[in-house]
Design brief:
By secondary structure, this protein is an alpha/beta fold. It has 23 helices and 30 strands. The protein starts with 8 loop residues before the first strand and ends with a strand. The structure holds iron/sulfur cluster.
Length: about 700
C-alpha cells in the first residue's frame, strides 16, 4: 500500500486508544511498527493526536508478556512483582499447562461451589468478537451473568439514562455532525485532552461561527473557543441544567410541535422545573442567573444544536440524573434526529461501545436485550446450542469485588482490565483480588492486577490482531494485524476459545469472521454489515439500511425505539454528592486523564515519546492554594481522603478552583484510586470518581 522505501509494508487499522476511532496506516519494517500515519477514516479524515501518532511503541516493549505463567507454589500475592523480572513469583509454562491450570481452577470452583462462584471482567480494548466470546463463556460456561467491563466505570449512567428515555444506548448522531450545527454544548468533557481529534472538529465549528458552550467545574483550553464557559461548582450539574430548562419553559422557548409528536411525560417535567428558577439555583451551582438565562436562550434558539458529554457527567452518584437532564434539554428543544442535532456521550475506550453492544454487561445480552426477558434469553440459548443461563441480572464491576470480600465469588477470569488500578477505593479492590481462590489474567503486560494472578495468559496487542471495533460514532471498523505477537502470545479470541474448550464448550470457531457471523444472528444492529464489507470498506456505521448503505450518521428522525415510538422526559432532583467536604477533608478531589496517558498507564507509560512528555505523577492545584500551603509549583503534597493518602508532585493550574484538586489516575506510584469514593449511582452502578472530600498538606519530610 505504501510507496516509500523506508518500510516493508503498510497496514490499515484503527488507533487502540480513545473512542474517536481514528484510522491509521502502520508502517512496518522487519516486523516492527516504525511509524504511524492517519488515513481517511470516517471519524478522523487523516488526523491523529499525539497518542495515535507516537504511542504505538509499547507493543515492542521488553515488558511484553510472551510466555504463559503460573504462580509459584507459596508465592505471596500483592504488588510485589517487577514486570521485567517475575521469575521469583511466576514460572514459565506451556500453553497446554497454563490453560489446563486456568480451566481446572475456574471449572473446579464451578463444580464445587456453583457457577456463581466465578465472575469475569472482559475488556473494551479487545475486539467486538472477543467481547462477544468472553460474555458467552461466562454465561454459557458458568450459567449466570456476572460479567462486566470498564463501561461500568465510565458511561454506565449515560447508558442507563439513554436506554430509559431514548430506548438506545448509542449516540443519536456522530460527532462530525457538529459541522451542521449552529450551537453545541460540551459538558463534563475535556475533548482537547481526551478526544483530541473530535476536538479539532469542535474548534473548526467555532471558526465558521458556531456557538460553543462549555460547562465544567474545571477550566480547559476548549473554553478559549467558547461563547460561554460555565465553570460550575463540582456536583451541581442537575441544579444548573434544571435552571437552564426552567428558563426554556418560563420563556416559552420549547418546541411544542416536537414535544407533542415525539415525547411523553412533558407535563410532569414542566411541573418539576417550576422549582428551579436560575435566581434560586445560582448560589447552588455557582453560575449567575443571567448567564443561565443567556445559555438557555442560545441553545433553545439554535436551528440545530448538539450536546456532548463525558465522564464529568457520568461519574457521579447522580450520573444518571445528569444524563436525564441533558436528554430532556435536547428533547424540549427538538434537537434530535435532524442534521446538526443530537445527543453524544463521548465514549472513552476504543471499543467500549462495541464491547457493550456485544453483551459484555451483566444486565444485557448482545444489542442490549434484557437477560430477564425469557424470549430474548431463549433466542441466545438456541443460538448457543441450548445453553442454559440465569434470568437474573449479574453483578457489576464493583459489586463483583464486594462479593469476593463476602466469599460469594471465589474465582475470576480478567481479560485486559486492570481493577487493581482502575477501581475506586483500590485498596479494597486489591484485597479482593488477593482473596480469590483462583485468578486468571489475560493481558499484554504483567499489570498491577496480574500481580494477584494464579495463571497469566499472554495476549496479542491490538496491532497484532484481526477483529472489528466500534467507535463513539457507531462506526464498526476493521482492525488488521500489522506485526506478529511476541513469543508465544496469542490473540484474545483464540485464548478464550481454548479456555472454553477445556471448560467443556466446543464452539468450533477458527477465525474471528466466524464469530462476527454468529453475532449477526443475534444482533439486529449489525444488519447489512458483513466481515467482507468491513474488509473492503474499512468502516460501516450502524444502522446500515441496505448492503450498500455506509450507515446512518443520524437516527430517530421519525420515532424512538421505545414502546409507542416516543422519547421520555424523566425529571431529576438535586442530590448532594455522597461525601461532602468538612473540617477534616475540606477540599474536593476529582480524577481524570491527561492527553499523553491512557487510563492505568500500562500502554502509554511504556511508550517512549508519551512517557518522556509526561513522566511523573502529578496533581493540579490553584496557585493560591499552593501559596496557602507554602508549596512551590513542582513541590510535593500529600492528598488524604477517608480511604487513604498519597504523595504527589503539585502543579500550579488556574483551571482548577482554589478548593479543588485534579489528579490523573495513570500513575501506580501515586494511585488516584487509593483516594476515590466507591459510592455508586443507583441506576448505572457507576462510582463517584469525580467527587471526594480531600485534605491537602505540604510534604515537609523529603
Ligand atoms: Fe487515537 Fe483518540 Fe487520538 Fe484518534 S483522537 S489518534 S483515536 S487517541
Amino acid at each position: 500500500q505504501g510507496d516509500s522505501t523506508d518500510f516493508d509494508r503498510a497496514v490499515k487499522s484503527v488507533c487502540p486508544f480513545c473512542g474517536v476511532g481514528c484510522q491509521v496506516s502502520l508502517k512496518v519494517k522487519d516486523d516492527k511498527v516504525i511509524y504511524v500515519e492517519g488515513i481517511d477514516g470516517p471519524a478522523n479524515e487523516g488526523r491523529l493526536c499525539v497518542k495515535g501518532r507516537f504511542g504505538f511503541d509499547y507493543i515492542h516493549h521488553p515488558h511484553r508478556l510472551s510466555v504463559p505463567l503460573i504462580r509459584r507454589e507459596g508465592a505471596e500475592k500483592g504488588l510485589n512483582v517487577d514486570p521485567g523480572n517475575w521469575a521469583e513469583v511466576f514460572r514459565e509454562a506451556t500453553w497446554d499447562a497454563a490453560l489446563e491450570a486456568a480451566a481446572k481452577g475456574l471449572g473446579g470452583l464451578r463444580d464445587t461451589h456453583g457457577g456463581r462462584s466465578v465472575a469475569g471482567f472482559g475488556s473494551a480494548k479487545c475486539t467486538n468478537e472477543e467481547a462477544y466470546l468472553f460474555q458467552r463463556l461466562i454465561r454459557e460456561g458458568f450459567g449466570h451473568n456476572n460479567v462486566d467491563h470498564c463501561t461500568r466505570l465510565c458511561h454506565a449512567s449515560s447508558v442507563a439514562a439513554l436506554m430509559e428515555n431514548v430506548g438506545s444506548a448509542a449516540v443519536t448522531a456522530t460527532f462530525n455532525e457538529i459541522e451542521n450545527a449552529d450551537v453545541a454544548i460540551v459538558i463534563g468533557a475535556n475533548p482537547i485532552e481526551n478526544h483530541p481529534v473530535a476536538a479539532t472538529y469542535f474548534k473548526q465549528f467555532t471558526k465558521r461561527g458556531g456557538k460553543l458552550i462549555v460547562m465544567d467545574p474545571r477550566g480547559q483550553s476548549l473554553a478559549r473557543h467558547a461563547t460561554h464557559m460555565l465553570q460550575f461548582k463540582p456536583g451541581a450539574d442537575v441544579s444548573m441544567l434544571n435552571a437552564i430548562m426552567h428558563v426554556i419553559v418560563e420563556e416559552g422557548l420549547f418546541d411544542t410541535q416536537y414535544i407533542h409528536a415525539m415525547t411523553e411525560n412533558w407535563d410532569a417535567m414542566r411541573a418539576h422545573l417550576a422549582d428551579f428558577a436560575p435566581e434560586k439555583m445560582q448560589a447552588i451551582c455557582g453560575i449567575p442567573a443571567d448567564t443561565l438565562r443567556a445559555v438557555a436562550r442560545e441553545f433553545a434558539g439554535a436551528k440545530a444544536g448538539m450536546i456532548f458529554w463525558g465522564m464529568g457527567v457520568s461519574q457521579h452518584i447522580h450520573g444518571t440524573d445528569n444524563s436525564r437532564c441533558l436528554i430532556s434539554l435536547a428533547l424540549m428543544c427538538g434537537q434530535v434526529g435532524r442534521p446538526g442535532t443530537g445527543l453524544h456521550p463521548l465514549r472513552g475506550q476504543n471499543n467500549v461501545q462495541g464491547a457493550s453492544d456485544a453483551g459484555l454487561i451483566p444486565m444485557f445480552l448482545p444489542d442490549y436485550q434484557s437477560v430477564a426477558d425469557d424470549t430474548l434469553r431463549g433466542n441466545f440459548s438456541a443460538l448457543w446450542g441450548g445453553a442454559e443461563f440465569s434470568a437474573e441480572k449479574g453483578l457489576t464491576v464493583t459489586e463483583i469485588l464486594d462479593a469476593v470480600h463476602e466469599g460469594q465469588i471465589r474465582g475470576m477470569y480478567i481479560s485486559g482490565e486492570n481493577p487493581a488500578m482502575s477501581d475506586p477505593d483500590v485498596v479494597h479492590a486489591r484485597e479482593a483480588l488477593a482473596k480469590l481462590d483462583h485468578l486468571v489474567v489475560q493481558d499484554i503486560f504483567l499489570t498491577e492486577t496480574a500481580n494477584y494472578a494464579d495463571v497469566i495468559l499472554p495476549a496479542a496487542a491490538f496491532y497484532e490482531k484481526s477483529g472489528t471495533v466500534t467507535n463513539t460514532n457507531r462506526q464498526v471498523q476493521m482492525g488488521r494485524p500489522a506485526v506478529p505477537p511476541p513469543g508465544q502470545a496469542r490473540e484474545d479470541w483464540a485464548i478464550t476459545i481454548e479456555l472454553a474448550r477445556r471448560l467443556g464448550l466446543d464452539w468450533g470457531f477458527t477465525h474471528p469472521s466466524q464469530v462476527f457471523a454468529e453475532m449477526k444472528q443475534g444482533m439486529a444492529s449489525l444488519e447489512n454489515i458483513t466481515w467482507e464489507r468491513l474488509e473492503r470498506e474499512g468502516a460501516v456505521t450502524y444502522p446500515s439500511l441496505t448492503p450498500d448503505d455506509p450507515g446512518q450518521p443520524i437516527v430517530f428522525a421519525d420515532a424512538f425505539p421505545r414502546a409507542g415510538g416516543r422519547a421520555k422526559f424523566t425529571p431529576a432532583s438535586v442530590i448532594a454528592p455522597d461525601e461532602l467536604p468538612d473540617a477534616d477533608y475540606p477540599m474536593v478531589l476529582t480524577t481524570g486523564r491527561q492527553l499523553e496517558h491512557w487510563h492505568t498507564g500500562a500502554m502509554t507509560r511504556r511508550s517512549k515519546v508519551l512517557d518522556a512528555v509526561e513522566p511523573e505523577a502529578n496533581c493540579s492545584l490553584h496557585p493560591s492554594t499552593l501559596r496557602h500551603l507554602g508549596v512551590e509549583a513542582g513541590g510535593m503534597v500529600r492528598l488524604s481522603t477517608r480511604r487513604g493518602s498519597i504523595s504527589v508532585m503539585a502543579r500550579a493550574d488556574r483551571a482548577v478552583s482554589p478548593d479543588m484538586v485534579f489528579l490523573p489516575f495513570a500513575f501506580v506510584e501515586a494511585a488516584a484510586n487509593i483516594l476515590t469514593n466507591p459510592a455508586l449511582d443507583p441506576y448505572g452502578k457507576i462510582p463517584e470518581f469525580k467527587f471526594a472530600a480531600v485534605r491537602v498538606d505540604a510534604v515537609t519530610d523529603t
